[in-house]
Write a structure and sequence with these properties.
The complex is a heterodimer of chains A (285) and B (428). With 285 residues, chain A is an all-alpha fold. Chain A has helices spanning 2-33, 50-57, 59-90, 97-109, 112-123, 129-136, 151-175, 180-189, 193-204, 206-221, 225-230, 242-252, 256-280, and strands at 36-37, 45-46. Helix content of chain A is 74%, strand content 1%. Chain A is globular, with a radius of gyration of 23 Å. With 428 residues, chain B is α+β, with helices and mostly antiparallel strands. Chain B folds into 2 domains: 2-145 and 308-381, Periplasmic binding protein-like II (D-Maltodextrin-Binding Protein, domain 2, 3-Layer(aba) Sandwich); 147-307 and 388-427, Periplasmic binding protein-like II (D-Maltodextrin-Binding Protein, domain 2), CATH 3.40.190. The chains are: A mainly alpha (285), B alpha+beta (428).
């Protein structure tokens, strides 16, 4: 009897241990850090709400939040539209369907750093392939990563290319759950393809849209590798994402308490956004 | 951030498990070298020699465990209390941070240290490595002076027999290169390259050596005050700004492609002696290069200083026998051993007899490319003593980007704003 009680706990022990060490402990510890100044090697110093006061006046942090929101505003709709479009195409009875599905998923599994370095070559101002193509057709070159107004949209294009495959798969799954008879009934009523898409497909895949929206919003807030490798947060801090700024404060300058404060604040912002999305996007189907 | 926490935690575990704690080494020592292959060879050489000559006082050696950077691993070891007794690759700019936290042994409290240091270094170096509390926590060990490498054939092609010495000469060279190698509005070759990223340590290869060169080795930080708001910083920013705004330097990142210097895309670069090994290995046939001091303002007089990328020797507080560790380090820095170090690593020991001792002379005769660096060696500066020096470089980088790369500010206001931000950081 005793053994029977112990076995389930032993079975879930690896997960519990992992959760305790890599999720629960960092979360609780960061909440403690919020009220302290700590440079890792010296003893912690209680500063009360000092880190929050500093945060309020830190223009770099708020710029990083605006940059991240800008990224999300372009990235999430772009991702949704492209992912739905590809999913609709891949839901047709095409030849070599499996091959195409795999190809679109490939960038998702390739290392982010590798993808980023590859795109850096594409985006080069003087010798990048994209600019060479533009000059071939007599168009001016674009400072993809060097023009402050273009750098974040360029990163967004790359991030969309990298992640869209995952959402294509999710939408494909959603599309395959739409009952065929709804389309047959619409055909009988004389609905065209666009009407069927707007009035049947979109409402039926609403839960998938909501899930993709939430996942890509949270993913958008985690923007890190792309600016870290490609631009270092420049030009003129225009690609400085919140997570990159937190990383710099925490692991370049060892302001652990302040970095934790920014992390907790960012979590609050994400939570508020997801609640808003839940309220306005999710519908009961 | 969750991943980063996990990495730091794993690193701590790695450091904890991969090394024997020095607390157990009362009769011996644990020494970590850098994980550079040549330095490992030297570490092995010196440890074997010591162990042979000092039975019962065994030194165990291992390269610093693998991590994203050795600085990160050392930090994790300090946090985990698993530091080695002796470490041979501490960036001078980090020493004040660890010293202030009480993690390093004050070497000036050990027998024979002061005499040793006076014998090894001149008074300026001793002053430079003396901490804010008056103690000395490091032995100035090795330097890699930042100088200007130039492509000899490239300069010949544009009619220059010798490398540019002043800002005017450099700008004139850059203008010639731009005019000669521009096709259909596309620049194919540049005078040089400086990293456009704002990462703080990138300024070691542009602003900082130029500032030291212009100012005769002035400080960035004195006590808790930024002291770089001066005519030398303005001149440096102004010079670099001209290079970027006139498209003499590319705003593209060239570092991810093939080596722009060896491929003949750039004529010069500010770099250290490590470039020699790299160039000898990868240079195309017929490629010739040389080294020259960092350019200076036209009205510059006096000695040309540069940044030295100084790495030093330290003893951690976890060491059970600091006096023994100090004796080991004294052996480490003995003349005949450092000659071997130079031969094995092509890195310069920071000692005043580098160009006068005949043992070193033999090496330089065999390796003439290293002579410019050895001549520069007495005139290198290490990072100032400040626990927030990285942040000072960071605020300089932010203003550098606005002024130099994007021409959004005048050099005067960029330097003024950088000094103001640096003072805020220093007051924290």
């Amino acid at each position: 009897m005793q053994k029977k009680k112990l076995t389930p706990y032993l079975l879930i022990a690896p997960y519990i241990l992992h959760f305790a060490m890599f999720v629960a402990f960092p979360v609780v510890f960061s909440l403690v850090l919020v009220f302290h100044r700590w440079n890792i090697i010296s003893p912690m110093e209680f500063v009360g709400l000092g880190n929050f006061y500093r945060l309020m006046g830190d223009t770099f942090f708020w710029q990083s939040v605006i940059n991240t929101l800008y990224f999300i505003i372009i990235h999430v709709p772009l991702q949704l539209i492209i992912a739905i479009s590809f999913a609709l195409l891949l839901n047709q009875p095409l030849r070599m369907l499996g091959f195409f599905r795999a190809v679109y998923f490939l960038p998702v599994v390739v290392s982010g750093v590798v993808v980023t370095i590859l795109w850096q070559q594409l985006f080069g101002f003087e010798n990048g392939i994209l600019n060479r193509l533009l000059t071939l057709i007599s168009l001016p070159r674009v400072g993809w990563l060097t023009n402050p107004d273009m750098a974040m949209p360029s990163i967004t294009i790359m991030a969309t290319w990298k992640n869209v495959g995952l959402y294509v798969i999710l939408f494909l799954t959603g599309l395959q759950t739409v009952p065929e008879q709804l389309y047959e009934a619409a055909d009988l009523e004389g609905a065209n393809a666009w009407q069927k898409f707007v009035h049947i497909t979109l409402p039926m895949i609403n839960p998938t849209i909501f899930m993709v929206l939430v996942l890509s919003t949270i993913g958008g807030f985690s923007l890190f590798i792309e600016p870290y490798v490609m631009t270092g947060g420049g030009p003129l801090n225009r690609t400085l994402s919140s997570v990159l700024y937190i990383y710099k404060q925490g692991f370049f300058f060892y302001h652990m308490g302040y970095a934790a404060t920014m992390g907790v604040t960012l979590t609050g912002i994400i939570l508020a956004l997801v609640v808003l999305q839940k309220k306005y996007v999710e519908r009961n189907t | 951030m969750k991943n980063i926490n996990a990495v730091l935690f794993l690193l701590t575990i790695l450091v904890f498990t991969s090394c024997k704690s020095s607390k157990n080494s009362q009769n011996g020592l644990l020494y970590w070298s850098s994980n550079n292959t040549d330095e490992i060879t030297y570490a092995r050489f010196i440890v074997e020699k010591w162990n042979k000559e000092n039975p019962g006082k065994e030194v165990k050696f291992q390269p610093v465990p693998e991590g994203q950077s050795s600085e990160e691993v050392i930090l994790a070891a300090v946090v985990g209390g698993t530091t080695p007794d002796v470490y041979s690759n501490m960036w001078q700019g980090d020493v004040e941070y660890y010293a202030r936290a009480g993690k390093l042994v004050a070497l000036d409290t050990l027998d024979g240290f002061i005499e040793f240091l006076a014998d090894r270094c001149d008074s300026a170096v001793i002053k430079e490595v003396t901490s804010r509390d008056g103690h000395i926590y490091q032995i100035p060990w090795k330097i890699n002076p930042i100088m200007m490498i130039y492509n000899v054939n490239f300069l010949k092609e544009i009619g220059m027999a010798k490398p540019p010495r002043t800002y005017s000469e450099f700008l004139s060279m850059a203008r010639t290169i731009k005019e000669k190698y521009q096709e259909n509005g596309r620049t194919k070759k540049w005078a040089g390259y400086a990293e456009v990223q704002v990462t703080w340590w990138q300024r070691w290869f542009d602003y900082y050596p130029l500032y030291l060169s212009a100012s005769g080795g002035a400080k960035l930080v004195e006590g808790d005050t930024a002291v770089f708001d001066n005519k030398y910083s303005v001149a440096t920013f102004s010079f670099l700004q001209k290079l970027f705004t006139n498209n003499y330097f590319p705003t593209d990142r060239l570092s991810s492609g093939q080596d722009p210097f060896l491929s003949g895309t750039i004529a010069t670069r500010f770099t250290g002696p490590w470039e020699i090994i790299h160039a000898e290995k990868f240079k195309p046939s017929g490629f010739t290069y040389g080294f020259a001091p960092i350019p200076v303002p036209d009205d510059h007089t006096g000695q040309q200083y540069t940044y030295g990328d100084t790495k030093n020797l330290v003893i951690f507080k976890t060491c059970g026998n600091p006096q023994l560790a100090w004796y080991f380090l004294r052996e480490f820095c003995k003349l005949e051993n450092e000659v071997e170090f130079l031969k094995m690593t092509n890195q310069l020991p920071r000692r005043k007899d580098l160009m006068t001792d005949k043992l070193f002379a033999k090496y330089f005769k065999k390796n003439p490319m290293m002579i410019p660096f050895a001549l520069q060696a007495p005139y290198v500066i290490g990072p100032d003593n400040s626990p927030v020096l990285k942040e000072v470089f960071d605020v300089i980088s932010a203003e550098y980007e606005q002024c130099v790369i994007y021409n959004k500010k005048s050099p005067e206001s960029a330097v003024k704003d950088a000094a103001h931000s640096a003072n805020l950081v220093l007051m924290q």
